[in-house]
Amino acid sequence: MNVLSCFDGISCGRVALSRAGIPVLSYHASEIDKYAIQISNKNHTDIIQLGDITKWREWDIPQPDLIIGGSPCQGFSFAGKQLAFNDPRSMLFFKFVEILNHYKPKFFLVENVRMKKEYQDVITGVLGVEPIIINSSLVSAQNRLRYYWTNIPGVTQPADKCIYLKDIIEHGVVDKDKSYCIDANYWKGGNLKQYFEKHRRQLVFNHSDQNVKILQTSERGRRLTPDGTKRDDKNGIVVRGYETRTDGKTCALTTVQKDNYVTEDFIIRKLTPLECERLQTIPDFYTEGVSNTQRYRALGNAWTVDVIAHVLSSICLD
Fold this sequence. Notes:
Blueprint: E1 2-6, H1 12-19, E2 26-30, H2 34-43, E3 47-49, E4 66-69, H3 88-91, H4 93-103, E5 107-113, H5 117-127, E6 132-135, E7 145-150, H6 165-168, H7 192-199, E8 261-264, E9 267-270, H8 273-279, H9 292-300, H10 305-312
Parallel strand pairs: 1-2, 1-4, 2-3, 4-5
Antiparallel strand pairs: 5-7, 6-7, 8-9
């Protein structure tokens, strides 16, 4: 199969094709981030890099059987300013459509974030297929709700693999079954305690101190003791409330640091790059070779490989 991957990132599509057992004759990738390209080239010597998608008319590639891509999502995401197609990054979606209309491949797959219905309808109208909504929590330890538009027939929801956050962390103790979504800004540091208090995200504690209480508040910023009274969080005993999940999943892996924390002996820490790779069902150490900052960014922008592999596995190779 000849494959064209637009907005290729770290070539999660290439990993997914291999995992789905689909033979690849050629894999051409359009990507401009030098660190993402470095990671891809380290792991896959057969990838042919094409560069900027806006210059696609200059490409000399074989007729693709499959075109895949997830255009930049910042303009659509509820976490952003929601400029939608007025955001230059989101406008790149239409470059993908130009490519799709030019090559008319047998199969295509488009991924993007949960967005307002009006934006979703534009993409659906252009592509001519309704999106399939899949949460990565079914195949990984994170809650990551994404929309997938594809003409691959017979795609169903993946089976729940029952993978939990406690199963993928290197050390420490988690306070929920699934991680929050990691985005491309996860690398940003600063005062983690203040960051947690501002955003009310997850913590991981050491079980050795039974006095630690993880509490949920109904009022933003309120501190409660176990009996429901206000109290300062001295000595790590009382922790600011947060929004818990009841479905046993973490939020989606993104590149935003606020979304996931691990703590040991009352010290809040970020998820490690290795843990983020596992949240995205990417092979361990796949992103090694660049700085942790670039690893976090790349992983936050990446696909959950096992979701993509599940979708691609419905392709009939006969």
